[in-house]
Design a protein that fits this description.
This is Phosphopantetheine adenylyltransferase. This protein is an alpha/beta fold. It is built from 10 helices and 13 strands. Helix content is about 30%, strand content about 20%. β5, α4 and β6 form a beta-alpha-beta unit. The chain is globular. It starts with 7 loop residues before the first strand and ends with a helix. About 0% of the residues have low confidence.
């Protein structure tokens, strides 16, 4: 099998408990650095799926699982922060469809209980639940084949790796050169009470909305989109009513005054990249990626749509020309996801909906990517949050594109 164009996989064992950004950094930075370094410098854009195994779902029945949204998005934010810092240090571009040398990284949470044992008689199958997070067996069935598989060289990492290979048996013939052990970091786990994990379970929603420019889709955008997807209440396959994920994407006219505006991607390209990323974290193809099939997108002017998981999840990207978008044209939206920068916009949305006599949206704010919290070996200047944010921003990416073109023209 030709491996050109196939994504690579990094299996990360259970996150440390209790956890914060510094603890996550100590545990996950070494394996992330090793995997990203190995993929750096490719003549083509490469893709890395970072699968984090954690017992994050709760509930007795498969069809009615729940999760703590705050806990889940915080974990994703912490990992994307580490990825951003490492890629900045290694001069690796991280955006979707970024061209040669880019490592397009996506973080996926995989529900797995380390106490669970699988026998050779187990026949894993693709099985969805009430959330977008799937268990390890389902992940192994739906995500394959791979270019390289990185696994952490520690007891928990080895156990996870062996269990994954058992569940993925027969999905892909793997050569020894594709299986790469990487050093793990320092972890410490303190046993937690079973009841404590159930205190902050989040009610999922049928219709979730968020907005942004999504120019040169980077880790900050990926966090926002992943956090929104984690709120979706995914119905059964036989349900007549899918859950909806509505993404408002700023129209081209509103971006003409941006810095390096000539390098802003078109609305169509930005919408396609949003759907392509969501396809990575939402779809569960029965044949994996063997056919290299891309998501089928229904494209109309300012309205791109795609469906995932046998039609149970519907994604809609709509062009917006103001701060409100569909939140003030659709009363049935349930939840709004915002960042720290758009917090005031969330309040404005609910004020406008109140004027229309509509119910307020439940507003969820994602964590920020903050280098200060993992600044053990970075210079003081580089660890300032605003400085770090500017380095991973769409503006910074456009500036790099402008500089590269100017350099190319100077040499021609």
């Amino acid at each position: 099998m030709k491996r050109d164009g196939l994504p690579s996989l990094l299996l990360l064992p259970f996150p440390p408990h209790p956890s914060n950004r510094q603890v996550l950094n100590a545990a996950y930075r070494p394996p992330l650095t090793a995997a990203l370094s190995a993929l750096k410098g490719s003549e083509k854009s490469t893709k890395l799926i970072v699968a984090v195994a954690c017992p994050i779902l709760h509930g007795q029945f498969v069809r009615s699982k729940t999760l703590s949204w705050s806990e889940a998005q915080s974990l994703v934010a912490g990992i994307y922060t580490i990825i951003s810092v490492v890629c900045s240090q290694l001069s690796i571009a991280t955006e979707v469809d970024g061209g040669p040398g880019t490592v397009d990284t996506a973080v996926i949470l995989v529900d797995h209980d380390r106490k669970k044992r699988f026998s050779s008689d187990d026949q894993p199958k693709i099985e969805t639940n009430n959330t977008v997070i799937v268990d390890l067996a389902t992940f192994a069935c739906a995500y394959h084949p791979w270019n390289l598989i990185f696994h952490v060289r520690c007891e928990a990492g080895l156990q996870l790796y062996q269990t994954y290979l058992q569940l993925a048996e027969g999905k892909q013939k793997l050569l020894q050169e594709q299986l790469i052990p990487v050093e793990g970091g320092l972890t410490m786990n303190v046993a937690q009470k079973e009841s404590s994990s159930l205190l902050s379970q989040t009610s999922n929603h049928q219709i979730v909305c968020l907005g942004g420019t999504f120019d040169h889709l980077h880790p900050g955008h990926k966090l926002l989109l992943t956090a929104g997807a984690l709120l979706l209440q995914v119905p059964r396959k036989d349900s007549q009513q899918p859950c909806e994920f509505i993404i408002g994407i700023t129209g081209d006219e509103l971006l003409k005054n941006k810095k390096y505006a000539e390098y802003v991607q078109s609305w169509e390209d930005r919408a396609r990249n949003v759907i392509l990323f969501l396809w990575t974290i939402l779809e569960l193809p029965a044949r994996g990626c063997k056919d290299n099939v891309k998501p089928r997108i229904e494209e109309k002017d300012g309205d791109f749509r795609a469906s995932f998981r046998d039609g149970t999840i519907r994604v809609q990207c709509v062009r917006i020309q103001d701060a409100f978008g569909p939140t003030v044209t659709r009363e049935d939206i349930n939840a709004l996801v915002v960042s720290a920068e758009t917090r005031s916009g969330g309040r404005a949305v609910n004020d406008r909906r109140a004027e229309q006599g509509w119910h307020a949206l439940e507003v969820f704010e994602v964590d920020v990517l903050n280098a200060e919290e993992i600044s053990d070996d970075l210079s003081e200047e580089a660890t300032k949050t605003e400085n770090f944010a500017s380095k991973i921003s769409s503006t910074a990416i456009r500036q790099q594109r402008a500089a590269a073109q100017a350099n190319a023209q100077a040499q021609s």
